[in-house]
Amino acid sequence: MINTILIFPIIACLLMLVIKNKTFSTLMVNTYAVIHAVITTMFTLNIGRDSHNPYFVVDNTNLIFLIILSLVFLMVAIYNTGYVKNFEFPDKKIRNYSFMILIFVLSMTGTLLSTDLGLAWVLVEATTLSSAYLIYFNRTKHSIEAAWKYVFICSIGIALAFVGIILLNISTGSINTLNFAHLYKYASTFDHIWLELAFVFMLFGFGAKMGLAPIHFWLPDAHSEAPSPISALLSAALLNSAFLVIVRVFKIMTLADCAGYARFMLLIMGFISIFVTAVFVYHIRNYKRMLAYSSIENMGILAIGTALGGAAYYAVILHLIGHSLAKASFFLTSGNVLELFESKRVKSVNGLMTADGKTGWLWVLSFLAICAFPTSVLFISEFIIIKTMILQGHYLLCAMFALLLTIVLYGIGKVVIKMTFGELSKDKKELIEQNKSKVSGFMYLPQFIMLLIVFTLGIYIPPFLQQIINCAVAGF
Amino acid sequence: MINGFIILFGLTMLYLAATSRIIAHIRLLVIQGILLFLICCGGMEHLNWLNFAFLTVETLIVKSIIIPAFLYKVLKKTHSNRDVAANIPHFYCLFIASIILLAGFLVSNYYVSSVKLISPIFFGVSVATIIISLWLITIKHKIISNVIEFITMENGIFLLSLSVAKEMPMLVNLGVLLDVFIAVYILGLFINVINKEFKDLEVSHLSDLKDYEYND
Fold first, then answer.
1. Average pLDDT for residues A271-277, to the nearest whole number?
2. A307 contacts: CB under 8 Å, gap ≥ 6
3. How high is the ipTM of this complex?
4. Which residue in the set A147, A163, A176 is minimally distant from B160, CB to CB?
5. pLDDT at B19 over 90
6. Looking at CA atoms only, how far is residue A251 from chain B in angstroms?
7. Which of A369 and A46 is assigned the larger pLDDT?
8. Domain assignment of residue A324, given as a range
9. How many domains does chain B have?
10. What is this structure's pTM?
11. Could you count the other beta carbons within 10 Å of the beta carbon of residue A422?
């Protein structure tokens, strides 16, 4: 099963090199999404988890990450079917687009499943390679600039993470392994100074990919310039894969008795991330950049949750699910807005409700989901994090956390309300009449499904999911 | 002998900090590639022949020929031989780089001597190289200079990975992958694309995406 999920995209890519047809290439993306979803469902039901592949394994920790990736990819693939129809590019370019999506998802799946730190590192590198092409897909000056920043900052991040891996190897002494299970087993014998040094490098390296401030600079540019389905994948899947690597390294730190230090580093980076979002989102001019900043904020919340520990681990997993689905829905809806209004400028968009009711409602609901309005699952996760802070006696941190989140909420809310309501001018109406045919049914359905899940999980978590979450919590 | 090569490698970083002609920087990359090859040769008794052949190809062909040749081609196409507008005068650059190198030696001698696995000189020079390169990236104005400094940083990391090659040859191979990644992507694709779009390779042209003054 694990081999199928990893080999199918390679076969699909080879087929796409032979059969040069754009419909076929889109079909391949959809097929992979379905296969990915089916296999993940089987893993969830505990079927076919055993493989004789020593490098890729489904374990308790990565299962929930895999489920999120699978669901988001399936939804993005549905959206993409409608989205690709509006492309006015040559066939070859659309083929390359599908080709790169397959490689991108393959490398993310590989990162999640890998049992070896070195392998995970290589696959994170592969995500940079494939997604950079997707970011500069539109070939405008701005998208090239965004892709350059992305490649350059992430390459430096990846290089620093490699330094971290070398330092980790030095700290292990005579145990020469990068296998996570072995690293966990011998963690108590590691040299503390070298391990702490290694953690800093790895946190900065993989943190750059995860979008934690102060190494987040590529994120708003890349997310705003990429085509919307790609922005959704970047935000809802790529950041999670980097987070999983950080979680695994964090576990080594915990087992080696250096957890206090790791928690401190994560807490600082988490708070800087939320602070940066609060500052920049306040006067934001571009709604896709706003969503990107919101991702930085949510990654910050994940880092803070991991740093707090205890009940907050449970909140982190809930937050991971909620954020991925809500943000993917938000980004996909922003794609609809962009198709309708042909502008990413907040100023140029108003009266979304009158322009296209369904997009308007999706826009508002995605906002409510992401800003943790009950019954969004994010409400529960943020509530647990705040509760943990109070129980642990971090009153000042708690106040700061609540204040910064309120500022972010105000910043995003202001933009969403401005865009949703109001009257449309005459020329805007004509523009929207022209563009309305571009937004097909495929471009509403995925967001509705994802939002439904986010709002349902806030009141009811099915027992099987509860069990998976509990298993994942044990992986911290 | 190896120590001599490593110190020479460290000195090339001082030269990089003190000059502004990009052609000199590219020649310096060739020298660094050859020095890394010589350092590999010094430690070859620990490696099997396959690994050694791999490292020879990597250091002599990729690092000393392919990457510099690529950069030279770009340089000829853009006619931008100097990165004159650096924020900090060369004398201070040299001074700061020397301090970082010295600090690398001192700190590593102080701390690393307790760990048997790794020799302090390897560690000191490679960490100093990484830090000097990162710092130079922040003060240079041309994209090609940034790429050159990125490659020197990568060379520093390669040197660091050589220091643990005895225990874990796999790490060195991972480092090689990083290098190939840069060669393929940053050089092959981006410099060409950016070059076509922007005419000259100044970092300042790549600052259109902002939060406050939004350009659509």
1. 95
2. A262, A263, A264, A266, A267, A270
3. 0.89
4. A163
5. no
6. 22
7. A369
8. 2-474
9. 1
10. 0.93
11. 14
